[in-house]
Each structure stands twice: as structure tokens, then as C-alpha cells.
Amino acid sequence: MNGVLILDKPSGLTSHDVVNRVRRILNQRSVGHLGTLDPMATGVLPLVVGNLTRLAQFYTHSEKIYEGAIRFGFSTDTYDAEGAPTSPAQQIALQADQLETLAARFRGIIEQIPPPFSAKKIQGVPAYKLARKQQEVELKPVQVEIKEFEILKVEDDHAQFRAHVASGTYMRSVAHDMGQALGCGAHLESLRRTAVAEFTLADAHTLEQLAQAAGNCSVENRAAHAPPHESSLSNQVPPLEDCFIHPRKLLPQFPCVTADELTTARIRAGRTVNLPDTSRARQIKVFASQRDLLAIATRIAGTLFHPKIVFGTEPCGTDTPVRRL
Question: Which end of the chain is flanked by fewer CB atoms within 10 Å, N or C?
């Protein structure tokens, strides 16, 4: 089974927790994610399955869109609501114009210090491991880009926002730094990722929906004991294939080309081929059929391409026996 799944990650699970659950649901060991979400955060978590885990290299610098809320009045050691307070609580009534002026300072390319509870490494050790042991964590500022940062609503000590950021940006640090600038402390109260690269919440499925589509027996058992109207709704589950992103929608910046049988065989052997591509793109997606993503090929000259990555022979999202949990 090869494909890309978009999960709507629930709060309280790490990204690795979600990967492990999907491995069990699909009975597929080769599952990875395209960028972590903090345990508290929810929303878009792209997962790559089977041979398409090799697509991860094309998503290392993906842009993200977030919606969330910042609470002002005190800071925390994790820069979010799950951490311990690090400053006395203050009563504060925010003004919308005041916060909008402050938000403008965080737009564009800025210097940002990552949170101490983060995966950034200090002499090879993740910062969060040192922070958990209450060891000193001294991270250097890094350059990040916040393309859009809009304050949507201000009420008492809360501010709701929407942000479009480049890879490597921590919204927890934004919240913390805004609190420092106002002198009252602040932390990220909630965060929902609504988009990563070309993937949005419209593409996402919950773990429960995926389990139903995969024929998870615990869901079947619940449906068997549910009232008739609920049972009929539970049976209206989309095919597992429909939970996967159609391969032709992946990496939209790369044109699609369908190879004939002879060319397909040559590509599977890793050989350079001529392909019917009239674009000037440096890289293209090559398909052996409508859904069978065969390779990512790099242009050598004219219509001559060399397969940079060759995927397996199984079309994305095809039915594979799933584990009964």
C-alpha cells in the first residue's frame, strides 16, 4: 500500500502516536509524517505510506497555515497551555488596536528563539530532553518568515489569530514574545493547523474515519450494537482508497506525464528515457496509469529525463489486507 493520507490530528497525541496508530490500522510498517504537530495542537498532519515515504524530501520546507488563540497575563515554561507558569498571573484587558500594532512587528522575516521544549538540538541533544531534566537550555535565534499574521478577535485576555508561516516557525515563540513585549507574559492557548503545503483540512480524515474505512473490527462491533439508524450510518463508510490523496494532486508544481509500457519498464530499471512533456519544468511526475505514481524524473535536456526516484509497482491507495484490532 503506497499513498499519502491527511489526518486531522486530535489534541493529546504526539505525531508519533498518530503514526503508530495508523501503522496498526493499515497493518503497514512503513508510515511517516511530513512535519510534527505539538501534542496540544490539532489539525492537518500529512502521512506518507509505503514507498511514498520517499516523497518526504520534497516537503521539508513546506509552508503552513495556523489558527489559534493566545492568552495574555502569564507565561509558561513550554510557551503553551500545557506548561507550568513562569510568571505571576496578571489581569489584563487587551485593546484590538494595541495588539494589531504589536502583531505587525512579527510579520515578515524575523529573528526567533525556539522554545526550550522543542526538537531543536543542543550539541546533538534535543532541547526538550534537557528542559525535562531542568537543565539549562540556551538556544540561538534563528531566522524565520511569517508571511501573514492576522488578529481575528480580541476579548479580555485572549486573542484569536490566523498565521501563514514558512517552515521552522514556532507559534509558541510568537505568543511568548508578544507577552514579553507587553510586559504581562503570554502563552499559546490553542493551535489548529489548517494547511501544510497543498494539503488542507478539506483533505483530512480522523483516526476513527480511517479505522472505519479500513474495516476496523472495534468500529464494526459498535455498529452491530448501535440503534438501526446509527448502524446504517456506520455502514456508509467510504472505500479505503478514497482516504488517500489522489497521486496526481501531489506536488502540484510538478507536471504529470503518463508513460507507455516500454518506457515504464525502462524507468523501473532506472534508465534515462524520453517523455512526452512540453513544459519547461525541471522535474515531473511520471505515471504508469491514472493512479500509479511511477517516478519523479529530472530533465536532462529537451524531453530527455532521468528518474530521480522510482517508486514501487503497487498503485497508491490500493486495497491491502488490514489488521483487525
Answer: C
pLDDT in tens, the chain (325 residues): 899 999 999 999 999 999 999 999 999 999 999 988 999 999 999 999 999 999 999 999 999 999 999 999 999 999 999 999 999 999 988 999 999 999 999 999 999 998 887 676 666 766 667 667 666 677 788 999 999 999 999 999 999 999 999 999 999 999 999 999 999 999 999 999 999 999 999 999 999 999 999 984 344 444 444 454 443 334 456 689 889 999 999 999 999 999 999 999 999 999 999 999 889 899 999 999 999 999 999 999 999 999 999 996 554 444 443 332 2
Q: Which of 196, 230, 255 is the last residue of a domain?
A: 196
Q: How far is CA 283 from CA 45, 58, 222, 297, in A?
A: 25, 11, 47, 6
Do 264 and 154 have their domain in common? no
Domain CATH code at residue 167? 3.30.2350.10
Q: Choose one of 196, 211, 237: the last residue of a domain.
A: 196
**Dihedral class, residue 207 (left if φ above 0, else alpha if ψ from -120 to 50, else beta):** alpha
CA-nearest of 37, 320, 88, 16 to 192 is: 37
Is 294 among the domain residues?
Answer: yes
Evaluate whether residue 216 is within a structural domain: no
Per the structure, the count of domains in the chain is: 2
Cβ 163 vs Cβ 62: under 8 Å: no
Answer yes or no: do 161 and 258 share one domain: no
In the residue annotation, 38 being an active-site residue is answered as: yes
Q: How would you classify the pairing of strands 283-287 and 256-258?
A: parallel
Q: Are residues 76 and 170 in the same domain?
A: yes
Q: Let me know whether 74 and 183 are in one domain.
A: yes
Q: Which of 156, 62, 42, 164 is nearest to 103 (CA)?
A: 164
The answer to whether the CB of 83 falls within 8 A of the CB of 77 is: yes
| 44 and 71 Cβ atoms separated by less than 8 Å | no
Other beta carbons less than 10 A from residue 12's beta carbon: 10
Q: What residues make up the domain containing 104?
A: 64-196
